[in-house]
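USER: My hope is that you can spare some time for a protein that puzzles me. I am handing you a single protein, as its sequence and its fold in C-alpha cell form. Walk me, if you will, through where the backbone shape changes along the chain. The protein I mean follows directly.
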Amino acid sequence: MAKMIDYADFSNQDFTGYSFEDVEFYRVNFSGANLTGTIFKGVDLSSCDLSGANLTNVSFANVSLRLCDFTDANLTDVDFSNITFLNCKGNGKEIKELNIPTYRVVITKEFMQIGCEGHTTKDWFQMDEKQIYGMDAPISLLWWREFKETLRNELRAIGAEV
C-alpha cells in the first residue's frame, strides 16, 4: 500500500538524489525545490506545485501526474516516456500546453494528452481513424483530421520524432 503525503510544504528544499517509491503526493508544494537526480518510482502526484523546481535528470518510473504545475520548472534531461499526465500545467518547453479548440492538449517529446486521452506520441500517430472516432465520436475524428498536422509540427518544434 502506498504511503500518502498530503498538504506538505517542501518548497525550496533540497532532495538531490533522493528516491521516492510507492508514494501518493496530494497538494504537496515542491515549488523552488531542488529535485536533481531524484527517483520517482510508482508515485502519484496530484495537485502538486512544482513551479520553479529543478528536476534536472529526474527519473520517473510508472508515475502518474494529475493537475500538477510545472511553470518555470527546469526539466532538463527528464524522460517522460514512463508517466501519464492529466491536466498538468507545463513549463512551455519540455511540457507544453497547446491552445487548440475543443480539447485541452499537453505534449512532451514522448507523450501527448488530448482531452482525457493520453498516449505516447508514437501511439497517437499510429492509430487509425476508427480508433480516433471511438474516443469521442464523431467530434474526435473531425478534430483529429483538422489538427493532426498542427500537433505533429508542435511536437517537432520540441524535438519529438513524429
